[in-house]
Amino acid sequence: MYQDENNLYHYSYSSDDQPGQSFEPSGYQSGPRQPVQEMKPVKKNRMGLKITALALVCALLGGTVGGGAVWALGGGLGKNETSINVSNRPATQVAIQQVDGKTAMSDAEVYAANVNSVVSINTTGTSGTNFFGQPVQTASAGSGFVLTKDGYIVTNYHVVKDADTVKVTMYNGDEYEAKYVGGDEDYDIAVIKVEATELQPVTLGDSEKLNVGDHVLAVGNPLGELTFSMSGGMVSCVNRAINVDGTPFNMIQTDASINPGNSGGPMFNQYGEVVGIVSAKYSSTGNESVEGLGFAIPINDVIAMIQDIMTNGYITNKPYLGITPMSMTEQMAAQYRYSVTSGVFVCSTEEGSAAEKAGLKLGDVITKVDDTEIKTVEDLNAAKKKYSAGDTSTLTVYRDGQTITVEITWGAVPADQQTSQTEQSQNNNSQSGNNGNYYTNPFDIFNYFFR
């Protein structure tokens, strides 16, 4: 997420005229020279000759300017020189400015002010076994940024997921072995820690203040080897809802160049503040290739979670419903004789969970969370991200042929169920059998209703 390219430029030249060699035009006869017969001048129209000469001079001057050559004055015809114009402009000095949230900076100034806060991340791990039963070694690369002077670093969860080792490289070449502190797959955020002091942290901005058309910059480690590269573009959309491998995200869309290895790196605004965490890009959709579709997680959406991870190792106030859900379909509606064809079918409720306390039960279909319409499990997971544990909501539920409302207080994710806490869809559950109100097979549910 990596190869050298050969130099494709080749230079060659040849010279037919070697020093010390004589050159004679074809047909030239050697031997004694013959007397040259003196030619009588022929009288011509002098005015016509002058006009012709003037035209030739103008043509020659025009060709000289267009071709970029400079004729040496006083050198005579046939003694021309070629010169190259070289600018004597002094190199631009980029001053390292303090990020204060008030002073707009040039792109070069943003880079100079923050490059020491950006890190390159390289991980190693194992992924299953090969034909001979040996573990398969894996390696990946990503980016991150320093959040505190004492070594807390933010990146994407998918950059460090399942890593056995995590190595961090700073802009000055210093390398550190990093310790995984915690992360969350649903929000694709992670925190790692290096043993260091007096690192240069970034300054966080307000992603809510971004407007479509604002200039943004991404600094990171594209392809895992083009370290500390910067790309720029504009904000193409704010609050863009996208789905990444079944997980819904609220994203900042940008046309800045994003590539594998940029993941986890910072997105800066024109004031040098971090307003997003670079996370994903679309390179194709269906059979169509696409360009200029990069995405970053708004920093406002996750900063409280990042601080929670730094303190507790996980997100303690992540909302939790406590059900086993299934996306309702027309086929299910026909089987169960329901009049609703979309929503989230409740396959089970966990004992002591927020769902059980609110009175949800097997066979209920959730169609709304407050004013948000719910058609699939993905819709429910996306809606949950608006809440924290302890918040209250009103669920609209289809039950026994009627639509009712249920008041619910969101619970917190149990400590033993960290990392990814989406309500696990029954469609992807491979267990079988049942226990009490827990049914793992749609046909078991069907038998429950119609036995």
Describe it.
Among the domains are: 115-126 and 138-193, Trypsin-like serine proteases (Thrombin, subunit H, Beta Barrel), CATH 2.40.10; 207-312, Trypsin-like serine proteases (Thrombin, subunit H); 319-450, Pdz3 Domain (Roll). The protein has eight helices and 25 strands. A hairpin with a 5-residue loop joins strand 1 and strand 2. The chain has helices at 46-67, 107-114, 157-160, 299-312, 330-336, 354-358, 377-384, 442-450, and strands at 118-129, 135-146, 152-155, 165-169, 175-177, 179-184, 189-193, 215-220, 229-244, 247-254, 266-268, 274-281, 284-285, 288-289, 294-298, 319-320, 323-327, 344-349, 365-369, 372-373, 392-399, 402-409, 411-412, 434-435, 438-439. Strands 5-4-1-2-3-7-6 form a seven-stranded antiparallel β-sheet. Strands 8-9-10-15-12-11 form a six-stranded antiparallel barrel. Strands 17, 18, 19, 20, 21 and 22 form a six-stranded antiparallel β-sheet that branches. It has 451 residues and is α+β, with helices and mostly antiparallel strands.
